[in-house]
Amino acid sequence: MSAGQDPRFVSRLTKKTLALILAGGRGSRLKHLTKWRSKPAVPFGGKFRIIDFPLSNCINSGIRQVGVLTQYKAHTLILHLQRGWSFLRGEFGEFVEILPAQQRIESTWYTGTADAVYQNQDIIRNHQSDYVLVLAGDHIYRMDYGTMIAHHVESGADMTVGCIEVDLDKAKEFGVMSVDDEGMVVEFAEKPENPQPMPGNENAALASMGIYVFNTAFLFEQLIKDADTPNSSHDFGKDIIPDVIDRYRYRVMAYAFQDPKSGKQAYWRDVGTVDAFWAANLELIGVTPELNLYDESWPIWTYQEQLPPAKFIFDDDDRRGMAVDSMVSGGCIISGAVVRNSLLFSNVRVNSYTEVNDSVILPGVDIGRNCRITKAVIDRGCEIPEGTVIGEDPEADAKRFHLSKGGVVLVTPEMLGHVLHYVR
């Protein structure tokens, strides 16, 4: 949006926009955290789930028509959406619709991100939106989509791609773009072996965020072409974007995701690995984290459990309930234990003489007495036996649990011998 742009111009655009959140992915790099839930349903930040961030961005941006496309082990995600996102008013044309794979057009399940949208084109048409905002449901960030949509309309593009700057050595994991002086995308490569650096910065590349704005008619045209293309994987990054750039080079615009105050790269995290998930959670406990969950101007909405306040009990020299440089959610009881540099989700109990350091503890975990937990991610519902030591002996940890490349120990109920059919 240009300087001085009338906010009413943006609000008119967001009212004409349908957001589609692609939330069907397994997220296999998160290992056992996605054994029984999809990646967008994974808890994050003490009380949220990953899907809450793009959904909250939509609400805060004034986009109140949202479809969530689900597929892989979606039960947990669907429950969360029903409980936490049913507050929108249908009388006002507001909704968060769940769009599961249901073979509406094809006799197959979703075979790619573009196919997921293609198979719901009848539903999308019925909403009669002028613009379609396609979002990934598995990233952590805060973004005003309204400014991106306004930039798309003002540029006269048929498609706009949200982009960020990434280090060149990490760019292999992204779709990498090259742009001209006016920001038009002239080249795109999905996860290239040798990423093209940005002009003037040989150490960084311009990467796709997996966020796209389409003129609705143009989107349908491309989806139908792709569906009729033999050997296509029906994916936006692999197929749609490269083809559109080849055919319509001067109709695809890049939108740089930057902090509106500083003009620098804005906060965005792909928490797709155990190491990245652990690090992004622990970033939040810093004095001034990049992602400020306490910013009342841009709240992150979620399903609110009715829980009592966190409680810290016992004050003996060898048995003091305390947490330092940590975030502790509602319903937690720190009973004569010490928690340092850690993030505890709701309803976690840490029992006497136990130490928890540099760890992320998901909801409903019970850690027994005399335990030492270091640099770990403990999944929901785990009951850690008395005297357990985690994070001090890599060889011993690897035999019982999952040990990441970065040395983070992931513990799930099944690894502890608990028989659970799924973990919410």
From TrEMBL:
It comes from the Bacteria. Alpha-D-glucose 1-phosphate binds at residues 110, 175, 190-191, 208. InterPro entries: ADP-Glc_PPase, ADP_Glu_pyroP_CS, GlgC_bac, GlmU/GlgC-like_hexapep, NTP_transferase_dom, Nucleotide-diphossugar_trans, Trimer_LpxA-like_sf. Keywords: ATP-binding, Carbohydrate metabolism, Glycogen biosynthesis, Glycogen metabolism, Nucleotide-binding, Nucleotidyltransferase, Transferase. Gene3D superfamilies: Hexapeptide repeat proteins, Spore Coat Polysaccharide Biosynthesis Protein SpsA, Chain A. The keyword Transferase applies. Residues 308-411 form the Glucose-1-phosphate adenylyltransferase/Bifunctional protein GlmU-like C-terminal hexapeptide domain. One of its GO terms (molecular function) is ATP binding. It is an enzyme of class 2 (transferase). The record marks 71, 109 as: Could play a key role in the communication between the regulatory and the substrate sites. It catalyses: alpha-D-glucose 1-phosphate + ATP + H(+) = ADP-alpha-D-glucose + diphosphate. GO terms for biological process: glycogen biosynthetic process. Its EC number is 2.7.7.27. Pathway: Glycan biosynthesis; glycogen biosynthesis. It holds the Pfam family Hexapep_GlmU. Residues 19-283 form the Nucleotidyl transferase domain. Involved in the biosynthesis of ADP-glucose, a building block required for the elongation reactions to produce glycogen. Catalyzes the reaction between ATP and alpha-D-glucose 1-phosphate (G1P) to produce pyrophosphate and ADP-Glc. Belongs to the bacterial/plant glucose-1-phosphate adenylyltransferase family. PANTHER family: GLUCOSE-1-PHOSPHATE ADENYLYLTRANSFERASE, GLUCOSE-1-PHOSPHATE ADENYLYLTRANSFERASE-RELATED. Homotetramer. This is Glucose-1-phosphate adenylyltransferase. It comes from Solemya velesiana gill symbiont. The lineage of its organism: Bacteria, Pseudomonadati, Pseudomonadota, Gammaproteobacteria, sulfur-oxidizing symbionts.
